[in-house]
Amino acid sequence: MGLTVIHNAVPTTPSNKALTPESAVARAKDMAPVLASRALEAEQLRRIPHETIDELQASGLMQLMQPRRYGGSELGLGVLMDVVLELCKGCSSTAWVYSNLASHSWNIGQFERQAQEDIWGENPKNMAATSLAFPCGRATPVEGGFHLTGRWPFGSGVDASTWMLVGAMTEFTGGAPERRFFLIPQSDYQNLGNWSSYGLSATGSHDVEVKGCFVPHHRSISAETIASGQNLPGAKLYENPMFRMPAFAAFAYVLGIVPLGTAKAAVEQFTQSLRQRVGTYTAIKVAELSAVQSRIAEAAACVEFAESVMRKDWLDLEEGVRLGEYPSIETKLRWKRNVAFSAQLAVRCIDTLMPAAGAGSLSTHLPLQRQFRDIHAASSHIGLTWDVHASAYGQSALGLPPQGGMLL
């Protein structure tokens, strides 16, 4: 089982002042150089170093979207995105794990009060990793709750977590199986420690197995309720509209911001590094080569177009929820199409830069090769795969029902 950071219990009443959008982004910017210095170590560990998790906790960033009642700042999706853009300048794997874990605290805030007490009542710094592959789990209703079994892949950040949020198909007598979420403590699951990948190598996205455990009713919620953002138990507890936000609509941004942020960092760092560089064999200033200039222009354009569209869409999502308006299926499909296409633009960005970088950029001590691997790994996630979301959007545009299993 993977090594897990267990923090000492802290009072339920928060002692740290809540972050503002400005202070959150500033703290992320300060952390980026430290993350860069640990990036190679993190890859070798196949997880985020414990010091980094501790520093993210101490900074308050890990509780960015957590309810204030449990020591959080209740800042919204847009602030999370801006923080992740800064963290990507240091380490994309850390940014990926952070984006997942910080957003999961918001999801937990949408559950019943008792579920939140179970997780944060003694320690508000507890975190939950997730795996939302519903067909990988089976749940059976029993008295007081559910009996859950399954094995789920891609539990990013599970090494730093003491809880898991998993999806499973629930078999009700006389009815069709229902997709549901379940919150389970570390004592009920096993971290299989099997993550080994060419990209996002430090995310510790291990498989997690449950051989049979009891989950009380209050730690389960229908996936359709989470998807709609309506009638959420947590929305009755808190005034902040973020707890009414449809989670699946936001899910793509939590993932898609990492390849975008990585591409943006790659363009900035690559451009800066070439201003004074000369060719090893020619002694010509690389910055004076027109081919290099045009590649930088193309890569920068990819990033700017992707960020503009993603930023507009996630702000529209937040504003709609604030006004009590919920997106249609067509709108959700358009947003997911745009995020997936933005991931493709991030891939195009990094693929454009690599030929201009030269053999020296292949060193494991330099960021570009890692950014190349991380962007390709991130864009292969089912939530960002262009073929999946292009097809789903096209089906809708042509009047066909969306394929089954889509997180809408």
Topology at a glance:
Blueprint: H1 21-45, H2 50-59, H3 77-87, H4 92-108, H5 113-120, E1 128-131, E2 137-142, E3 145-155, E4 163-170, E5 178-185, E6 190-191, E7 206-216, E8 220-222, H6 223-228, H7 247-274, H8 290-322, H9 329-357, H10 367-379, H11 386-397
Parallel strand pairs: 1-4, 2-4
Antiparallel strand pairs: 2-3, 3-7, 4-5, 5-8, 6-7
Helix pairs in contact: 1-3, 3-4, 3-7, 4-7, 7-8, 7-9, 7-10, 8-9, 9-10, 9-11
Assign the CATH topology of the largest domain: Butyryl-CoA Dehydrogenase, subunit A, domain 3
**N-to-C series of helices and strands:** HHHHHEEEEEEEEHHHHHH
Mean pLDDT: 91
- Count of the separate structural domains: 3
Structural class comes to alpha+beta
How would a textbook summarize the main sheet?
A: 8 strands, mixed
Number of helical segments with 4 or more residues = 11
Structural shape: globular
